[in-house]
Amino acid sequence: MPRQKASKGKAPQVSQRAPKLTKENFEKELQDLASKAKEETWQKWARDQIWVLIKAGGLLTFAAVYSNVSQLALSPVFGSIPASIWHQSGVIIACFLGWSLNLFLANNLPYKTVKLLPVLAAYIPIMQLALSKYSGLLGALYGPLIIESVTFFPLLMLSVSSTAIILDDMDMSPGRFKWITDALPGILSYTFYKVVENFSRVNLQEMLVKYSFLNRLNLELGFIGLYSIIAPSNLLIFTIPPLLHTVVLNPHVTLPWTTYSLNATLNQNGWSLLDRQESLTGYLSVIENKNVGYRVMRCDHSLLGGEWQLSATKTSTKEPIYSVFVMLEAVRLVEVSLRVPDEEASALVVGLGIGTTPAALIAHGINTTIVEIDPIVYRFASEYFDLPSNHTAVISDAVSYASLSVASGKKFDYIVHDVFTGGAEPIDLFTFEFLHDLHSLLKPNGVIAINYAGDFILPSTRIVLHTILSIFPTCRIYREFVAPSSSMVDVDGRDFTNMVIFCTNAPDGTITFRKPDTRDYLESHARRKFLVPEHEVLRDEFALQEGDGEVLSRNNTQRFEIWHHKSALGHWAVMRTVLPADIWENW
């Protein structure tokens, strides 16, 4: 081909030449390649470390959330407070053993520890169901510890062991991170676990309320699936039998056939389940004994109230089965200098239960406001216990409501304080600050009735009573039933009782009850028998002792924890005499 000639008047185009191969250029090229290789190596290292942290964080997150699920699964049988007594100690031991024995477990178990997690999670509901049948024998103090020792604690130990093995893959060489020590991964892992555990404890119950298809057993089923996803293996075949047993036969899973099976079991003793649902305050259910003819509402391992369904005559209000709720209605009987007619009076009821007391106040024509934190409790009281609709309902935290009401200047003629949860009093509602707000909400001639369930041999009862008296100096205290003998208290080791404290703002400094008339009884036999309080407690019976401390304040409630444990254990024993054990266990 002819060679192309350059055009006249234009300089010929010269192709770009490669840089000269000099020593300087060669060294620069090597430096560029080294820098690029170093950058790629660092990025790969970072991706590897992030993936390790994700896997370890996932295992710890599952274990932390399951910690609270395990507590929820035990609370209907033992109560939320007894179920928590040994829990954190068991968590610390399981975490220590899992971290320190991770190499031993890895070298001596036939399978990787992480692959055992789905199998163990699948058998936890079966073991909880089986061992709960022996709750009466195991007791509320050690029963939860024994059950968690063969269910959640092994799961936690293997989870921590698997986490330690995963973190061994992290590059923590002193050359790169001189500040990291051998102990730091364990410390950070435990810190992460506790943060997630505390966060989920606050939010888990609300999640159960928000999503009605969930309950505590359904959550355990969900964890079986999650563990199966993160640790797939041939071992998953062993999860099928326990999974089928739980889905088909475990009455605590909320499915149509499990509910039918539960009712078939309850019917053998004359009981039937009318409704059940997770709530903000615990597991709620409404059950009825058709043989005897009464209906009750339970929350975990306590009763919120009950009433007779059969009556010889038609009455304006149903008969309550517990006398303490009738005693609270005596708030209307306290003599004051300027008595307000019922039709002109106003009442505040803190804590609803099944609505026995507010229903009676409403029946008397009193303008009644009910403050209840749990919307499911309110719904059950309305649907199954005929709570009258002509009242003001406030679904809110009572502490916040009282504070806002004081600021707005609200006043009431009567206040009924009736709260109980988890086997002990909700301590925030017995502090000096909250009770002082109630004092501010009471009219000058107003009367307050406070229901307190506690053990007279514990300092907590003495402190709460003295806190009440420091705000309401004019009070009288009554037990629900006659006090047991000192020998009986010595044998039982407790003196647990319901009591009602009647106090007034009246200036005369005395508490007396007027004689009830026919209208006060609301055509109720129970009110004829229990409306007027009888078993008074004298002040020297609960005198403060050395070491009790001062009144209960909002910033000093931690000291009540150990007393709460003892009180809740006493309450558990009392509840086992109120309803048969199998009713509590077949929740």
UniProtKB/TrEMBL annotation:
Cited InterPro entries: Lys/N-term_MeTrsfase_sf, SAM-dependent_MTases_sf
One annotated GO molecular function: methyltransferase activity
Keyword Nucleotide-binding (UniProt): no
An individual GO BP term: methylation
Pfam families for this protein: Spermine_synth (PF01564)
Membrane spanning residue stretches: 52-73, 85-104, 116-135, 141-167, 221-244
Region (Disordered) location: 1-25
Family as reported in the entry's similarity comment: Belongs to the methyltransferase superfamily.
Protein name stated in the entry: PABS domain-containing protein
